[in-house]
Amino acid sequence: MATTDIDGDYRTNNVTVALSKQIVNGPKMRELIARMVTKVGQGLTDGTLAGFPLLQSQYAADPARFMGLVFGAISDFCFNMEYVRRITDARWSYCTKAGDHRVYYPYLGVCPHCVLKGNRPVEAVLGANALVGEEERESRARYFGNKIESHHVGRIGERVIVYILDLLIKSKFPDATSLLVFDDQHDVDAAFFFEGLGIITQIKASPLILLPVMSVMNAPMTEGVSGETGLPLQKRDHTFAGFTSSDHELNLYFSTDDTFLPIGKRSGQDWPYAPLIGALDQASVFKIINNWLTIYMAFEVPKRLRTGDDKKKAWLTSGWGAPIDDNKTKAGLARSDNMMKGTYASLKYGAYYVQECQRRTLKTALVANIDPVHQYADYLEKLEDIRWAHNKDFKPNQNGDETASYTIAKDRLTFLFDSVFTFNRQIMNDPVLADAWDLGGFIKKLIDGSATKTLDSWSGYSAA
Fold first, then answer.
1. Number of compact structural domains in the chain
2. 3-state secondary structure 311-375
3. Burial label, 206 (beta-carbon count in 10 A; 0-12, 13-18, 19+)
4. Is the CB of residue 104 less than 8 Å from the CB of residue 214?
5. CB under 8 Å to 188, separation ≥6 — which residues?
């Protein structure tokens, strides 16, 4: 089952789900993307970008790549909002190391504040008894943060990717149609139609960087009483606590510089989108992107080659491994399992759909938020331009020597990937897709203002 209503949430019986029970708050996610992209466009022309030297240098070096990385940061931030929608009042971690009394709702198995302060992430593990030896702490039952169901991660990722691709295509082809598949049994995740062509896609998206939720309390947390005095004992750092999140002001926490972004109290079906969108100015948007890029650039360095600050910043990414995170949660195509499944899906699309299409108007794309990054050479580089065909379509040359060479009609050769589109790197074997998802062209529209109208019509909301 599929729908052109990419804001809605459906089940396989084609019944629309009430917003309060939807896996994704589609309308608000779309509004968030529109606002962030608009603020980036404004910041490129009014001087705001100059206040962020890292972003300025990336933009000056390659505007198209810069736009891709901006979308990478925005997509992770959308994931972040959906993770925040799912916070509970259990398993908050307590810490006083910043000089005040804080609780964090962590998505990794380490204290968001302390993980960058020591030389090893094990020094910041959560839930470990500080009085036991290091060996016991290392071998404890693994806790890798407050995760959400993998099925929900997949659904969120599909929606984020479809929204951004929809934006890119419609900025070029306003009459394009985007189709979101919501049947779990189907092998296609989304499809896009424009100019008489159809693109069928396999989506493998999951977050690389998530900002934990944090709240500062007016007084210390206590746990038990002193046997000597009978007075309450202060709770130990890095232990878990219950916390009534609807009664306290909450923030998104930036580990890299110990700052935070307010999101208000947990309240209403549009939280945390509504209070955040209303408060997002250009400086906030660029700070979010700058934080993401700072961590991403550390992640780009191969794991064994990371040193100093790069090694520590990479601890803030998903899928690092013990004691930080389960390595099965690596982002996008950085997880080899996703790369392999996506490659098979692309091959199947070619054999069952592209070659069976008499008009030859179908294209395929493997889409993710992040490619294998530092493992690109090991998993993707030698596959990116492969073409294949069925054995029956190869004909021996006229000399009759079947061991010498074969000929094949051009239209019987099919790219394994017409495109592998990720925000940090794009493989474009098909010129039509290269034109439709042209990041360089899109950023030019942002700069000259022509994309503003597209953003408003695309989202259905004012992005001002």
1. 1
2. HHHHCCCCCCECCCECHHHCCHHHCHHHHHHHHHHHHHHHHHHHCCCCCCCEEEEEEECCCCHHH
3. buried
4. yes
5. 181, 200, 201, 202, 349
Tokens of 287: 């700070």
Sign of CA dihedral 262, 264, 265, 268: negative
Residue 49 CA from chain centroid, whole number: 23
pTM of the model: 0.92
In a domain, 173, yes or no: yes
Token pair listed for 263: 């999101």
CB 370 within 8 A of CB 333: yes
Asked whether residue 161 is domain-assigned, the answer is yes
Residue 261 lies in a domain: no
Q: Rounded to an integer, what distance in angstroms lies between the CA atom of residue 156 and that of residue 22?
A: 11
Positions in the chain whose pLDDT score sits under 70: 1-5, 8-20, 128-142, 183-184, 399-403, 458-464
Domain that holds residue 197: 1-86+150-208+275-464
Q: What is the pLDDT of residues 158-213, one digit of tens each?
A: 999 999 999 999 999 989 999 998 766 789 999 999 999 999 999 999 999 999 99
* pLDDT of the residue at 406: 87
Give domain status of residue 222, yes or no. no
